[in-house]
Amino acid sequence: MKLLYVISSTDVGGAEKALVSLVRLVGQTHTVKVVCLKPLGPLAAELRSSGAQVVSLEMTGAGFGIVSKLAREIESFQPDMVHAMLFRAIEFARLACAGRKIKLVTTPHFDLSQKPLWMRLLDRTLKSTDTLSCAESVSTYNFLLQKQGYAKAKTVLVENTVEKSLFFKDNFVKSRMRKEKQISDTQVAFICVGRLAKIKNPQLLLRAFSKILSNCPNALLIYVGDGPERPALEKWIQEHDLSKKVILAGAQQNINDWLNLADVFVLLSKEESLPLALLEAQQVGLPCLVSRVGDMPRLVEHGKNGFVCNPQDEILVSCLMTELYSNAKLRQDMGDFSLQKSKQQQDVNNKYQQIYQQVVSN
Known about the structure:
With 362 residues, this protein is of the alpha/beta class. The protein has 15 helices and 13 strands. The strands form two sheets. Strands 3-2-1-4-5-6-7 form a seven-stranded parallel sheet, sandwiched between helices.
């Protein structure tokens, strides 16, 4: 089978990482090509090493001419099926496939309910081009059916998962990483994994963390990821003399090692669908403090494997961080429950394999 994937970027993000995981499996038995709309990012090399041909359409700005470029890639490759991920890639793929006898599968990997009206209207207008629409979270699935008018017969739930071989609890790794980063066993490390972008709310987390330090002197905050908000965070850290309390680790490849180093996972995004970072943290056995958006409240049971809060409630975030800092047994019990929750995850990549076979064979 020849599979053509279309994605907006190959930067380090949840959708991009999900694509790498999927290509790693399907590339073993199928011919795979990835078309990236934007200039290639760091994950392009991983896609190539997984057996995929990777090209960029070098899109900048609004993307004028991208539909015709994408149509030429489809015509040249002659795929049995096109699978598009992320908003721009999906809409451009729909336009490129329109009027052609091409089977198109789409997976949003973002919360469309929080996007502007014009994006929702465009999606509603072009959705009929899909052969099959796959929702990566329950919240996305319900929104597509109830608000966007997707046909139930052409919409399926394929929840995000992460590879269990790549993310797991490892006390040896925890000890090694803490020694390497000069973090003592008495320090309680809060970790946030994600892009340093406003949508991920990194500044609120930083402000909330600063409030707990008078009562939690051994607390440490670690950001793993990079993005446009980094300069503002660096400035705030410098102004408040927090350089010894906050680590901006930047983009990292060994996310499992960083998660094992930590004691608590925090993700206070303003918008999410079903973030891979949360699933990864649960597989490592971390208690999780998350915002009440997307599917995160479904994965984090308040008081059992973490806490759920309003993403704008800075005071509550500080109180919950203090509670997690002060109670080691609570952290242990919540971490154990996270491990139990992670065992419920199914292998999404094998499910996509079955979907591809069904789509191609009608």
